[in-house]
Amino acid sequence: MNHYLSISSEVQTALREGRPVVALESTIISHGMPYPQNVETALRVEQTIRDNGAVPATIAIIKGKLKAGCTNNEIEYLGKKGTLVTKASRRDLPVLIATNADGATTVTTTMMIAAMAGIRVFATGGIGGVHRGATSTMDISADLEELAQTQVMVICAGAKSILDLGLTLEYLETKGVPVIGYQTGELPAFYTRHSGFSVDYQANSPEELAHIFQTKIQLGLKGGMLVTNPIPEQYSMPVDVINQAIDQAVSEAGQLGIHGKQLTPFLLAKVKELTGGLSLDANIQLVLNNARLAALTAKQLATYKA
Fold first, then answer.
1. At what angle do helices 37-51 and 72-81 cross, to 10 degrees?
2. Catalytic-role residue among 160, 270, 272, 299
3. pLDDT tens per residue, range 123-157
């Protein structure tokens, strides 16, 4: 076992017994919303996974250790420390570990640590992707490269609608990453169910998702699989409202010269402000929805022998 990796006893036992485990990221705790709502939401997501028959494994870097499965106290610690915790992507891991620092894992680092621990299913809100204007800025999320090389199924509500969704799909196609719509043939756009872009395939049950991913594993194909699960209809925001807020947020970010790691948190906070908090409510509901599907899919995947 990698000596930098610390797997909680609950997660270790579940993996040893072949029971379903679902990975969760920690950026949503430290950078996604204010305290104490961030901690309440994280614990609610974990409970949703338990209620649907799987074991949650919240992933983070705490005092230089890669944690696969955080305690309630550790989640509280990350929530209270908030944005003082480094938003950790692949390039940050050596420094954070060497300096015994804390890190909130993104999609990229959650996939990495999940794979190290032997966890094959990960539920998140939305993935990063190709940013608007990337043809000149080259601002492309490391999430896409990780999906191309790390064998973890990522269940999300699509790519964040602050991105260039068309180019994000093109990038994933180039990297050979299957993009599967859950009960939809259209790419959901995080806050909304519709984007106007088609996904590669549609799957209609957790059993079908598990079978496709297991087949991918048996074929020896590297990389992950992206499952896009639309936000429930009752929480979906009007497309024109969210697009107007995003356009304004992107414009303000450009005027202020905000880019890199700071861009996504700025855009999400600005969209929340412009929508009167409705986007945060939608964010919470879509994460819970993804957690449910991830637990049910992990249960099906656990029926296959490793």
1. 150
2. 160
3. 999 999 998 888 887 889 999 999 999 999 999 99
